[in-house]
Design goal:
Number of domains: 1
Number of strands: 2
Radius of gyration: 13 Å
Order of helices and strands: EHHEHH
Organism: Rhizobium daejeonense
Protein name: Helix-turn-helix domain-containing protein
Strand content: 5-15%
Oligomer: single chain
Shape: globular
Number of helices: 4
């Protein structure tokens, strides 16, 4: 079920985001730090579920990010 079709809030905390993705909170934190997942909404400690879905779609190959600079993409994917 899509987040828009249920009663969950669109903005969720770190624990909820990790649970939504089926990963540990520490893994979610690492993914945010390495730009695998989006940053929280500015001025909050909450993540937009639509941004998480869009990023996961991109990582899964379901959606392409045509606006991303190829060098920035390489840097993001190869950051250590």
């Amino acid at each position: 079920m899509s987040p828009a079709n249920d009663n969950r809030p669109r903005l969720i905390g770190r624990r909820e985001a990790a649970n939504y993705l089926g990963i540990a909170e520490s893994t979610f934190s690492m993914w945010v730090a390495t730009h695998k997942m989006p940053q929280p909404v500015a001025g909050t400690r909450r993540w937009d579920m639509k941004a998480i879905d869009a990023r996961l779609d991109e990582l899964s190959g379901l959606a392409a990010n045509d606006n991303e600079d190829p060098y920035e993409k390489w840097m993001r994917e190869n950051a250590s």
